[in-house]
Amino acid sequence: MQSSQKTGAKSYLITKTLDPENQETPIQFIHKDFVTEKLFYRRNHFSYPNFVSSFYWLSIGGLVNFSRTFSLEEIQALPSKTLKSVLECAGNKRGFFKPMVFGEQWQKGAISQGIWKGVSLRTMLRYTGVLEAAKEVVFEGYDFGVRTDSNDLTYFSRSLPIEKALHPDTLIAYEYNGKPLPFKHGFPLRLIVPEWYAMASVKWIKKITVIDHEFKGPFQAVDYVYYPKKDSDEGKLPVTTMKINSTIQQPIDRQILNTGFHTIAGIAWTGRGVITKIEVSVDGGMTWSFANLVQSPEKYAWVRWEYKWEVFEKGEYTILSRAMESEGGKQPKEAVWNRKGYGYNAIDTIKVKVE
């Protein structure tokens, strides 16, 4: 198996839209535990924000004992934490839903992984205190624009329930892969919420507000909601934890192969526990075999896996992968359809031809 890193060839993001910029990671060429800045997928609802000053301040207010404004230097001087975490767009693989749904038609590349350094939000809230009535924490970014369903200027804002906000691994991040956070990925500060889909990891954080009620912003109450029915809101649920999932990176779908030995390789991830097993089928799901995990599973991170395939009979083959995790979950045969196309996690499928 060859990759662009081994051959010296270059990989590029796969463009979906230019303004706002939405681009996929070429996931079939990623064979490391982290994705470089240039290949990390980009998901935006609005154009990139413009900072009018090089000075940066982050305010924390609302239901706190003491409102406070932190400079970037003060935040970077606080005790830090570093963790490896997947960021997956909730719409990753949306293009595979049947029947098709409206929205960005992501394939398999609206997912990346990095090593994030920052300050636990819990640590920062110790400086302000949190009142007993607090139920949620709202994060407002600097990015704004006009939504298609309104004529009002809207800032991208999301909230976390207080217990998730106070989890020690919920980070206010300022570094990515050992370097300052790139502007297109949220510089100078972004939220990192491990285990949740990436809409929760708000970029370009402008302010943080603690509230005593359910946040009703449009990116929480309208978007990033599972609507199981096409024509009504009955049974709707918020999008939160990432579903168990896997992706075959090599071979590439519709690739033509020679007879002989091949490596089937991919990644698997989950928002609950860790990945424990990967099964691969080379006969369309009639029989399954266990793949080898390339490294020990880590909480919050994807695991890379490989399966050695010996094939000497020419013809067309359907290759499948499915993951299992420590909390008992198993990747399903079919994803749960919803009209906004979130959380696609059906068994991954490719077809190859052996000549």
Task: Give a written overview of the molecule.
The protein has 355 residues and is mainly beta. The protein folds into two domains: 4-238, Alpha-Beta Complex (Sulfite Oxidase, Chain A, domain 2); 245-354, Immunoglobulin-like (Sandwich), CATH 2.60.40. It contains five helices and 23 strands. The strands form six sheets. Strands 4-3-12-7-8 form a five-stranded mixed sheet. β1 and β2 form a beta hairpin. The longest helix has 6 residues, at 72-77. The two termini are 18 Å apart. The model is unreliable at 1-7 (pLDDT under 50).
Produce the secondary structure layout.
Layout: H1 4-7, E1 14-18, E2 21-24, E3 57-62, E4 68-71, H2 72-77, E5 81-88, E6 111-120, H3 121-126, E7 136-146, E8 153-161, H4 162-165, E9 171-176, E10 179-180, E11 190-192, E12 205-211, H5 218-221, E13 225-226, E14 237-238, E15 245-250, E16 255-257, E17 260-269, E18 275-281, E19 289-290, E20 292-293, E21 303-311, E22 315-325, E23 348-354
Strand content: 35-45%
CATH first level of the largest domain: Alpha Beta
CATH architecture tag of the largest domain: Alpha-Beta Complex
| Unreliable sequence segments | 1-7
Strand arrangement in the largest pleated sheet? 4-3-12-7-8
Alpha carbon gap, first and last residue? 18 Å
GO molecular function: heme binding; molybdenum ion binding; molybdopterin cofactor binding; sulfite oxidase activity
GO biological process, one term: sulfur compound metabolic process
InterPro entries: Ig_E-set (IPR014756), MoCF_OxRdtse_dimer (IPR005066), Mopterin_OxRdtase_euk (IPR008335), OxRdtase_Mopterin-bd_dom (IPR000572), OxRdtase_Mopterin-bd_sf (IPR036374)
Protein name: Sulfite oxidase
